[in-house]
Amino acid sequence: MVTRIPLRRHEDERGWFMELMRASELPKPVRQANLARSRRGVIRALHYHERGQDDLFLCLHGMVRVVVLDRDTGETFTEDIGDDNPVAIYVPGTMAHGYEALTDCLFCYFVTEEYDPADPDEHGVPWNDPRVVDLWSTKSPILSARDEV
Fold first, then answer.
1. SS3 of 28, please?
2. Is 61 known to be catalytic?
3. CATH number, position 116
4. Which candidate in 47, 48, 90, 97 is catalytic?
5. Which strand (E) or helix (H) includes residue 88?
6. Are 16 and 60 in contact (CB under 8 A)?
7. What is the pLDDT of residues 6-47, one digit of tens each?
8. Rounded distance, CA 52 to CA 23, Å?
9. Nearest to 94 by CA among 115, 114, 121
10. CB within 8 A of 10, min separation 6: which ones?
11. CA angle (144, 66, 59) in 5-degree steps
12. Which member of 48, 90, 99, 109 is catalytic?
């Protein structure tokens, strides 16, 4: 099940402070942190992990649309997160998941397994799969070569 974790900003005259995650609140321990910068219109398409790597998504700057597909039931989840909605989204890795940059953005995701380039546990679902194609805000995304398939 996808878990939505509201983030609280503590503001004063200096700016603000916000906790991004607490290991004690997550179902599995985090093993790696990743950071991506994306231009508006980029979709980092749906992928999933057979061995169960989970992801905790956070948008540090800008806005992104998180899209999740339960491959077994066809149920979907989507939420716009970032500057206007400070929320973290915890996604079980067996669900297909990805995001669209609604603005230029800085996106962070914590994962429960370290990436192994010799044996990557990444499998794809096309961004334009009929179960999710209408969830994106764009019909002509900027994609990597891998995500175009």
1. coil
2. no
3. 2.60.120.10
4. 47
5. strand 87-91
6. no
7. 999 999 999 989 999 999 999 999 999 999 999 999 999 899
8. 17
9. 121
10. 16, 17, 18
11. 90
12. 109
Cα 115 versus chain centre, distance: 16
Check: pTM over 0.85? Answer yes or no: yes
Q: Are 67 and 125 in contact (CB under 8 A)?
A: no
Note if 109 is an active site residue: yes
148 occurs within a structural domain: no
Q: What domain range is 55 assigned to?
A: 3-10+27-135
Answer positive or negative: Cα dihedral of 24, 27, 33, 37.
negative
Q: Which of 109, 94, 104, 96 is nearest to 135 (CA)?
A: 96
Q: How many domains does the chain have?
A: 1
